[in-house]
Each structure stands twice: as C-alpha cells, then as structure tokens.
Amino acid sequence: MATDPNAEIDHEGPVTPYRQLAEILRARIARGDWAAGRPIPSENRLVQEYGLARSTVRRAIAVLVEEGVVWTVQGRGTYVGQPPES
User: Fold this and answer.
1) ∠ CA(12), CA(68), CA(46), 5° rounding?
2) pLDDT of 13-23, one tens digit each?
3) Which residues contact 54 (CB under 8 A, 6 or more apart)?
4) What pTM was computed for the model?
5) Where are the alpha helices (DSSP H) in the chain?
6) Which residues have CB under 8 Å from 2's CB, separation 6+?
7) Is there a contact between 34 and 10 (Cβ–Cβ < 8 Å)?
8) Which residues pair with 80 in a beta bridge?
C-alpha cells in the first residue's frame, strides 16, 4: 500500500490511525527523509505533528520495529534500519 508521505491522519477512515502513521513513516523513510542509522522524530514530536495520542504513536513505531524498518534504544530514540551488531 503506497502512502503519500505528506498525508494526514484520517480519524474517520477505515484504517486505524496507528496503521496510517506507520504507513506515513514508512513512506517518509523510503523517500529519504531520514537516512539509515539516523533517528526519526521523537514520540513527542510525532504526537504534535500528527495530532495523535502517545500510545498511538508508540503502536505505529512498534509495527515498524516488528517489520525491521526501525529499531529503538530506550531513552535515546528510534533509528532507521537495522541495529548495529554488538
């Protein structure tokens, strides 16, 4: 499902807001807004930018983590791509 990286969340649509946000973030990564290994905006920033609850933003990020699109470091942020090998 291709999504416009500039899309807004449709709170009345058939797709849940967290799925919409996951698609938007995936599209923005594909477009090159954030390079591999670089952080995406913070949860707080995404809450403000998209007008969503923090739990919704966290759920969208969790979807992308499960897919291997991003990885997180507690207290530091969420990064594009696979985590570096330890």
Assistant:
1) 40
2) 999 999 999 99
3) 43, 44, 47
4) 0.90
5) 17-31, 43-50, 54-67
6) 27
7) no
8) 70
